[in-house]
UniProtKB/TrEMBL annotation:
Keywords, ordered alphabetically: NAD, Oxidoreductase, Pyruvate
Originating species: Limibacillus halophilus
Domain of life: Bacteria
Enzyme class: oxidoreductase
Keyword Ligase listed: no
Name of protein: Glyoxylate/hydroxypyruvate reductase A
PANTHER family: 2-HACID_DH_C DOMAIN-CONTAINING PROTEIN (PTHR43333), D-ISOMER SPECIFIC 2-HYDROXYACID DEHYDROGENASE NAD-BINDING DOMAIN-CONTAINING PROTEIN (PTHR43333:SF1)
Domain D-isomer specific 2-hydroxyacid dehydrogenase NAD-binding, residue spans: 102-274
Length: 309
């Protein structure tokens, strides 16, 4: 039994060390050293190189290095009947919660305005708004959205979330399905996007939906870049419909040099780093699922290919 993994070179060593520490019996093959393809039962990848998965006759599961699987889906044909497991691990959740809380508080506490004032050497107080008066809305109440919702609500923000199916989470109002999207947006002064990228969520933040937010709403975009119509967002920023944004994901990454977002006074941007899988904690999630498969149980956090996430 072997596990083939393909991650960026820098982090390959960290993965190999974490696997060696927690499962010294597991044979590791690091891409491109596949060896005998018959040995490989598990693959851990962000985006599999074309044609590789179909060459592995004994494959039992594909583990995504990330929480999203859009990169995996985009990489080409996936072998039928092999479970795809998305990454759910405490390090990734903690990193995203930190980022969402940081970004939300920066926007809430006028750090964009103070950055402009600092650049202009201008000293002026802006009246603070109590958290109770800033309604937070989280698009996507899954693993990451729920934890961000929970922590943000501890600051006193009234928090609501939108998902496909209704949730019952203490202290978080649940809106579900397309029919409730407008009502959800119209009560969200600060919107966090933590949706997976699927055909349904592509360009979900567009002219129409951005206009449904309260005037001057704030945006934290950490799902995927293709969920945002960037021209519509720029218009909304320029008109004041959107008061400010923290953007971590973009339609094209790296962000092209000519993108107006780079120098936009109402934007703080980061290079798709809101959260990263932590090999040290993630190997435990992978090994737990390998143990489940060995016992004949279904792995946890499998992707439903029909839903697309
Ligand atoms: P989950 O699968 O746990 O949660 C997804 C949530 O989105 C669920 O609540 C789901 O609803 C909801 N959803 C999906 N499609 C729709 C739809 N059409 N309408 C309404 N709600 C919908 O994912 P995670 O929380 O683990 O991750 C979310 C995303 O975060 C990832 O897919 C990835 O794109 C992004 N991400 C970004 C990172 C970054 O660094 N920027 C790092 C990690 C992740 P329901 O609960 O009803 O199924």
């Amino acid at each position: 039994m072997a596990l083939l993994f393909k991650t960026d070179i820098d982090r390959g060593t960290a993965w190999a060390q974490a696997f060696a520490k927690h499962a010294p019996e597991l044979e590791l093959r690091q891409w491109p050293e596949i060896g005998n393809p018959d040995d490989i039962e598990y693959v851990l990848v962000w985006a599999p190189p074309e044609g590789v998965l179909s060459r592995l006759p004994n494959l039992k599961a594909i583990f995504s290095v990330g929480a999203g699987i859009d990169h995996l889906m985009a990489a080409g044909e996936l072998p039928e009947g092999i479970p795809i497991v998305r990454m759910v691990e405490p390090g990734l959740t903690a990193g995203m919660t930190e980022f969402v809380v940081m970004a939300s508080l920066m926007l809430h506490r006028f750090m964009l305005e103070y950055r402009s004032q600092q650049t202009a050497h201008h000293w002026e107080e802006i009246n603070q708004i109590p958290t109770a008066q800033r309604r937070v809305g989280i698009l996507g109440l899954g693993t990451l959205g729920q934890e961000s919702a929970r922590v943000l609500s501890t600051f006193g923000f009234p928090v609501a979330g939108w998902s496909r199916t209704r949730k019952e989470i203490s202290g978080v109002d649940s809106f579900a399905g397309e029919t409730e999207l407008k009502a959800f947006l119209s009560r969200s002064d600060l919107l966090v996007c933590l949706l997976p990228l699927t055909p349904e969520t592509e360009s979900i933040l567009n002219r129409e939906t951005l206009a449904q937010l309260p005037t001057g709403a704030l945006l934290v975009s950490v799902g995927r870049g293709r969920q945002v119509d960037e021209d519509a967002l720029l218009e909304a920023l320029d008109s004041g419909q959107i008061g400010g944004a923290v953007l971590d994901v973009f339609r094209q990454e790296p962000l092209p040099a000519e993108s107006p977002f780079w120098d936009h006074p109402k934007v703080i941007l980061t290079p798709h780093v809101a959260s990263m899988t932590n090999p040290e904690t993630a190997v435990l999630a992978v090994l737990d699922n390998i143990a489940r498969i060995k016992k004949g149980d279904a792995p946890s956090h499998t992707v439903d290919l029909k839903r697309g996430y």
